[in-house]
Each structure stands twice: as structure tokens, then as C-alpha cells.
């Protein structure tokens, strides 16, 4: 049914495109003409492993994309990071002009698929679907940016525009605040941020997305022979950890946009955890009361207010220790939330109008609770932002990741025309 709808949509496209200007129809024609080379370039970059920790692969993908921006008259540079961060760095491409809004276009070069995983090459599954590592998240989105700018350049519509393109090399596993300092400072010089993470089809864009942070729960307790649990030894560290986790779930589990996932839990007589490898070791016996427990998890939220309120409640729960146990919880900041705002929705309305002009139908705001954290959130407090403008697909972060090849050219066309309208 969905495929029939899409075919009808494409069929009606030519009828409704009369709402577009002459330069806009020329851009669309150029995008169509360039699609074979666009898809060939996508296949080339997908077939290069660029897991976040594969620094050589990230730089290789960045070099291919940098070469494309060079051809379009952008000034390109590679932002290096301290060796201590163990990250490849970032690609930046800029051009300065006096027309229209100053745009900050966001993408990322890395994927979740590290080099140690089996390689899944770019594969055409059928006439509407392609698969491959990062084909949608987000090499497809990066190629949307490149193909859109190529079409505008071919029509000499990039002249005198101000555009900064920032493709990070560690979105999937950030190197921390130091890794985003330059990103934020460059964004502050622009008027609007547009991010090209995976699109949810043609009918929605992202005006808000949740942030992500981490938490660590440490529990200590008296240890000794298991026959003395519940009496002079108290309850042990594992029971206390379970009490806390269950109370988190019971107290906060139904709050909209808030999730907290305990991704790792270990307990026993001794626990050792390696931050670099995310591996834990524990020693214990069934007849010894566990003296220590460790839980590590994430906390996802829409607003800073929601994050701080959740942290306060979690601390309160942790403080109510079972007898002869003591628990502590610590929090680490990751990616802030991108709060839905009136300014963001104005951008959505512009895309909605453009989409209707193109005959693609209305565009609504995607549910922010259904999106994870992303780089755009680092700059959301400084300017209007929009995300979800990249390639559409399913199964991201899995071996079943696919991209919708029928929607791909339409999303490139829409991106090109939106950039054109913003830079007039």
C-alpha cells in the first residue's frame, strides 16, 4: 500500500511542480541527471568501514567528501583532536557570501559498525531498497548534502552564499566536550542549523529530539557467610542495587520522553570495570553475601529541566539504603536535548510549504520521543534547528539497515530547494 502511495505521489509530482520557480525546476532536473553518479558515490563511501574508532576509515570517507566540496568552491579543512580522545577528527567546508541566511549543515562520517564487525557492503535489494553499513545513518544523509549542493552549483546558485558544512567524525561515540568545542563555536556564527540525520520519509521532519547522559551506581555492603543475610549482615549489595533499579522503574517509568536504561550490572565479592573497553569482571560465590555491585546506564530526556528533575529523584531513591548497605550515584553529561520550539517549527512550516509546492504533500513534526540524541542538539540553544533531512530508511544501527532509494532523489531535491530558498 505504501509503495502504491509513493508511486501516486511521484506521478502527481510533475503536475504540482508548477508552483516552483524556473531556477527551482532547473535544480530538480539537475538532481535527476546527476543521480547515477550520486548513487555511485554513495556506494563507494558505504563500502569503506568508518566505525568511530576506525580513525583511518573515518578520515578516508572524509577525504572523499572533502574532494567533492573542493570541486564546488568550498574551503575545506580537517579539524584534528587531541590524541587522548582517540578520535579521527572532523571535516569542515565553508564559503562566505552576503546572500540570505548563514547556514550550518550537519552530518557525520562515522558509523556504529566498528572494523571488528563483519562488513556489509552496499547492496541493491530491489528497485526501492538498498542496504549497507551506514547507508541511512548517515552516509546517505551526507550524500544528500553533497548532491543538493552539486545541483545548486551547476546552476550557479551557490554564488555569494554563506554555508558551513560540519561533518563530525565521532557522532556515534563522542570524544566528549573537547570534541564539540569547535563545532559549537562555528555554529554560533550562523543563523540556522540543518541536520541530515535519517529522515522519517517525506512527510515529517524533526523539530525536537531527546538528549542523552550517563549514570553510574555503586553499591557497597557488609560481606560474609550467606547464612547471615537479612540479619547481622544486612541485605548485601545486589539486593540494594535491585531495590534501586526497581524503584527507578516504578517511580519514573511512565514519564513522557524520559527513559533510563541499566545497560550493565555486575555484583559479587569484588568488581572491576574498565572504562576504555566497557568490560567488567567480578568474583563471588553463592555462599558469600555480595559486598559490591556496579550498574551503568543512560538517561534520555527532552529538556534540561526534565533531566535535572529525574536526577534529583534518582538521588533521593539511592539515599534510602537498605540496612547495612550504602549506595552512591554519579551522572555524566553527554548530548543535550533539542527542545521543540516555535522557531524550529517555523522552519518546519517552510519545508511544509516547499513540499507542497513540489507536490510531495504536507510535512509534520516527528515525535521527539522516537528520536535518539544527535549533534544538532549541541547548538539548539543558539539558533533555530531542523533535523531528519537526510536519507530515509529502516533498521539503523543494525545489520538490517536499509535506505529507501525511491525517496532518496526526492529528498535531495527538497534539500537543494530548501537551501536555495534560505540563501536568497
Order of strands across the biggest sheet?
1-2-6-3-7-16
CATH topology of the largest domain: Aminopeptidase
Helix content: 25-40%
Order of helices and strands: HHHEEEEEHEHEEEHEEEEHEHEEEEH
Which structural category do the helix and sheet elements fall into? alpha+beta
CATH class of the largest domain: Alpha Beta
Q: Per the principal axes of the C-alpha atoms, what is the gross shape?
A: elongated
The overall average pLDDT, rounded, is 94
- Rounded to the nearest angstrom, the radius of gyration is 24 Å
Biggest sheet descriptor: 6 strands, mixed
The rounded distance between the terminal residues' Cα atoms is 39 Å
CATH architecture of the largest domain: 3-Layer(aba) Sandwich
How many independent structural domains? 2
User: What is the CATH H-level superfamily of the largest domain?
Assistant: Zn peptidases
Strand content: 15-25%
| Number of contiguous helices | 9
Keywords: Hydrolase, Metal-binding, Signal
Organism: Spirosoma arboris
Protein name: M20/M25/M40 family metallo-hydrolase
GO molecular function, one term: hydrolase activity
Amino acid at each position: 500500500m505504501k509503495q502504491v502511495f509513493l508511486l501516486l505521489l511521484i506521478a502527481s509530482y510533475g503536475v504540482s511542480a508548477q508552483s516552483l520557480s524556473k531556477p527551482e525546476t532547473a535544480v530538480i532536473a539537475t538532481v535527476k541527471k546527476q543521480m547515477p553518479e550520486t548513487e555511485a558515490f554513495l556506494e563507494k563511501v558505504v563500502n569503506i568501514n568508518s566505525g568511530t574508532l576506525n580513525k583511518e576509515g573515518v578520515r578516508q570517507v572524509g577525504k572523499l567528501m572533502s574532494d567533492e566540496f573542493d570541486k564546488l568552491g568550498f574551503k575545506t579543512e580537517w579539524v584534528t583532536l587531541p590524541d587522548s580522545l582517540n578520535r579521527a577528527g572532523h571535516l569542515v567546508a565553508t564559503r562566505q557570501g552576503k546572500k540570505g541566511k548563514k547556514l550550518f549543515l550537519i552530518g557525520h562520517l562515522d558509523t556504529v559498525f566498528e572494523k571488528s564487525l563483519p562488513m556489509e557492503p552496499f547492496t541493491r535489494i530491489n528497485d526501492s531498497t538498498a542496504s549497507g553499513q551506514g547507508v541511512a545513518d548517515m552516509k546517505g544523509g551526507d550524500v544528500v548534502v553533497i548532491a543538493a549542493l552539486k545541483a545548486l552549483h551547476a546552476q550557479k546558485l551557490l554564488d555569494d552564499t554563506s554555508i558551513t558544512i560540519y561533518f563530525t567524525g565521532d557522532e556515534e561515540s563522542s570524544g566528549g566536550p573537547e570534541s564539540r568545542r569547535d563545532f559549537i563555536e562555528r555554529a554560533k556564527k550562523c543563523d540556522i542549523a540543518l541536520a541530515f540525520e535519517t529522515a522519517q520519509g517525506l512527510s515529517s521532519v524533526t523539530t525536537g529530539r531527546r538528549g542523552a547522559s550517563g549514570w553510574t551506581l555503586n553499591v557497597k555492603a557488609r560481606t560474609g557467610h550467606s547464612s547471615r543475610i537479612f540479619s547481622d549482615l544486612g541485605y548485601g549489595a545486589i539486593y540494594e542495587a535491585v531495590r534501586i533499579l526497581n524503584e527507578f522503574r516504578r517511580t519514573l517509568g511512565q514519564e513522557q520522553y524520559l527513559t533510563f536504561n541499566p545497560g550493565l550490572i555486575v555484583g559479587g565479592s569484588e568488581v572491576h570495570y574498565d572504562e576504555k573497553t566497557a568490560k567488567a569482571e567480578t568474583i563471588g560465590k553463592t555462599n558469600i553475601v555480595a559486598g559490591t555491585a556496579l550498574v551503568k546506564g543512560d538517561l534520555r530526556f527532552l529538556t534540561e529541566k526534565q533531566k535535572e528533575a529525574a536526577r534529583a529523584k534518582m538521588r533521593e531513591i539511592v539515599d534510602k539504603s537498605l540496612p547495612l548497605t550504602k549506595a552512591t550515584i554519579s551522572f555524566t553529561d553527554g548530548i543535550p536535548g533539542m527542545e521543540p520550539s516555535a522557531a524550529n517549527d517555523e522552519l518546519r512550516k517552510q519545508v511544509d510549504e516547499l513540499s507542497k509546492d513540489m507536490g510531495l504533500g504536507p510535512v509534520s513534526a516527528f515525535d521527539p520521543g522516537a528520536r535518539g540524541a544527535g549533534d544538532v542538539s549541541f547548538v539548539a540553544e543558539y539558533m533555530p534547528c531542523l533535523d531528519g533531512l537526510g536519507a530515509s530508511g529502516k533498521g539503523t544501527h543494525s545489520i538490517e539497515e536499509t535506505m529507501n532509494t525511491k525517496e532518496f532523489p526526492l529528498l535531495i531535491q527538497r534539500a537543494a530547494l530548501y537551501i536555495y530558498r534560505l540563501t536568497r
